[in-house]
Amino acid sequence: MSFWPQSRKARRRLTILLAVAPVLALAVGLAMYGLRDSISLFYTPAQAQEAKVAPGRKVQLGGLVQHGSVVKHPGGDVEFVVADQKAAAKVTYHGDLPDLFREGQGIVAEGTFDANGTFVAKQVLAKHDERYMPRDVAKALKKQGEWRGEGAGAPNYGAPAYGKPTT
Amino acid sequence: MIVELGAFALILSLMLSVAQTGLSAVGGARRSPVLAGAGRGAAVATFLAVLVAFAALIHAFVGSDFSVANVAANSHTAKPLLYKVAGAWGSHEGSMLLWCLVLTGYGAAMAFFGDSLPPRLRAYAIAIQGALGVLFLAYTVFASNPLERLLDPPIEGRSLNPLLQDPALAFHPPFLYAGYVGFSVVYSLSLAALIEGRIDAAWARWVRPWTLAAWSLLTVGITLGAFWAYYELGWGGWWFWDPVENASFMPWLIGAALLHSAIVTEKRGALPGWTAFLALAAFTFSMLGAFLVRSGVLTSVHAFAVDPTRGVLLLIMMGVAAGAGFLLFGVRAPSLNRGGQFRPISRESAIVLNNILLSTAAAVVLLGTLYPLIREAMDGEAVSVGAPFFNLTFVPLMVLAFAVLPAGPLLAWKRGDAGAVARRLWIALAAAAVLGLVAYGVVQPRKALASAGLVIGFWLVGGALVEIAERLKLFRVPAGESARRARGLPRGAWGTTLAHAGLGIFVLGASFETAWRVEAAQALSLNGSQPLGAYTLTLTDVGTVEGPNYLAERGRVRVTDRSGAVVCRAEPERRFYPTGSQTTSEVAICLRGLDDIYVVLGERRAGEGGKPAWLVRAYVNPWVRLIFLGPLIMAIGGVISLSDRRVRLGVGKRAGEAVS
């Protein structure tokens, strides 16, 4: 055991290193893997078209719910169109929409595109606040010149806006 | 008038905290008891001044004084009294004032109860607590004053977000802040000790009760938040790995690590530098939380109204406080006494491992929380990091920690005997494995991973029971002797057992609920029914009710089991709040032992044949009660440890007892 250092201090350091290293390696490895595979990218409909998102890849789709596009089927299925200024995407969703889901409201849907380009949402997020615009949506829309200032222009004494998505 | 008085008191408190800092610092440096005493007085006075300001704000809320901007934005005359009061801390400005109240309150507590601390350390700690007070009070006074008047007051307020009008959430922020900000005390104590260049067992004995108190309160706060999310938001979940939740969870993890490392420093004098580092890190994470929640840099489904300017201010404050702390740590840490030696198999080592795992877990949560920011700065892509990432990274680390946890308390200090511990623990491991296998065989559908989760939960509970049985020598000596030992056992030991068992109970609940929850959602017309696992739900009636500040549709849902017997009648509501025109769901929950039947009434839509139908969404959440019970038991464990004589009385008194 020639590599085992002589001095007590150095030995102690080595022991601590030996204890920390595997845990760190595990954490770093898992984190790298996780950041590659289990994060979802955010797109607006136009960006999604441009990026040609592969069917089955989990992404977030954000935009404004197009007026007059919401169709509710009796079984609990909902269809609507999420649009930005350049493109629109059809979204299907099964379940109860967030209480504040409205036409013209900014939302983020999480799910996958199917082979026909329809977005199958697993989750629809809308903040429980009438002034709310998801930040990513606001930013992406701002870039496209769609932004009209609703949502972010809340007065500085704005109320807190708590809310959870409904799944 | 009272509002002006409050605003004046707020400014006064800023002045007083400047005095607190200056007097205590000079008093400490010159070893002047007079100046240090004056600093202590200033600390108490600061707290009283903030208390006056806070009382004025509550008064304005209760009296619905809409000439105060914050009241106009967050209150309404028709709101129930409890929520008028809770509105005082429901907004950015009000919650910052609550933060200051707690911060100065802890400062006053140090001034009041710190008699057993070395006078110099105490003076420095109070000075640093005062400096933190100056930072946050200045921010409150200049950038987010909750008592600001409106020139043109509205007739009616804009009301508090209806989702926040809930008892659990009314009490959630006070607990959360008491926990968060409680870490400011250990931050101050740590910095004060670093200035003095001496970190020893006596110091750790002081750090421990404050950490215990802060951590227990934070546990309660987080649990209340999760409980609120569970029953108020109507999506059936209790944890979302949302940035705001993570912001409160990171200080909790670091606090848990600190709780354990402080024991090592106290009992064995080892790890002084590491304990000081954790003490600094805990409050840094608290401040990071305050920044994340308020600045809007991260997309969160529940954050305060976004205000980037204030975000920058908060970031600067955090930078100053954390930067100063870690700079001093970097300068002083190399010269710290290394403390006691210990072997690789010992209780110290077990706690070191616990610390490595807990802080790595906190780092992973931090990475996941900030990654969207990093990615955006790097390549401009908007990404979201959700539950899958955290499940993949956080859970394995915790599994490792839980695997070794029961061995820790059974190991001896300095040099432990692994064989002896294994001989004691095998019964817990065997019982856990058997119970896990039973679950795997009995519960349908079969799920291996969730059954493994149950094994871990049973292992933790079993380990805690073995530990306490070992201390009482249960079944090995007569029962009377065991009872005598139970009375003599320090409360700290009971606290440890309870906290570890509580953790196991939580793991049991979380594994079971996540894996075996049953969900059903269908549009039902009147007298329509849908199956939900072993139950059948029938919508019998929908009527309207009028609440104090809302209108609601109330559904009556009959839940029957397989034999057709009525299990319960759920009455979920869908409420409409005219002020702010918001709709919320009021969930109906039927308690069935440890399980919940959770029913949500959705919106009305056209059903078959043009009859009206309502979307009824329902879950069976098995063992969900344990998820909230476990952390509460942990917090109770913390409080019981806190009441331990050894923790309560400082080192000075103990030394005095030994002499006399």
Molecular structure report:
The complex is a heterodimer of chains A (167) and B (660). Chain A is an alpha+beta fold and 167 residues long. Chain A folds into two domains: 1-39; 41-143, Beta Barrel (OB fold (Dihydrolipoamide Acetyltransferase, E2P)). Chain A has helices at residues 8-37, 45-51, 135-143, and strands at 39-43, 59-65, 71-72, 77-83, 88-94, 106-113, 119-125. A five-stranded mixed beta barrel of chain A has the order 2-4-5-7-6. In chain A, strand 4 (77-83) and strand 5 form a beta hairpin. The longest helix of chain A has 30 residues, at 8-37. The radius of gyration of chain A is 23 Å and the shape is elongated. Chain A starts with 7 loop residues before the first helix and ends in a 24-residue tail after the last helix. Mean pLDDT of chain A is 72; it is low at 128-132 and 146-167. Chain B has 660 residues and is α+β, with helices and mostly antiparallel strands. Chain B has four domains: 1-165, no CATH class; 179-385, no CATH class; 417-516; 518-621. In chain B, strands 3, 4, 5, 6, 7 and 8 form a six-stranded antiparallel sheet that branches. In chain B, strands 2-11-10-9 form a four-stranded antiparallel sheet. In chain B, strand 4 (535-546) and strand 5 (551-560) form a beta hairpin. In chain B, helix 1 runs antiparallel to helix 2 and helix 14 (418-442) crosses helix 15 (448-472). The radius of gyration of chain B is 27 Å and the shape is globular. At the A-B interface, helix 1, strand 1 and helix 3 of A face helix 3, helix 12, strand 1, helix 13 and strand 2 of B. Strand 1 of chain A pairs antiparallel with strand 1 (383-385) of chain B.
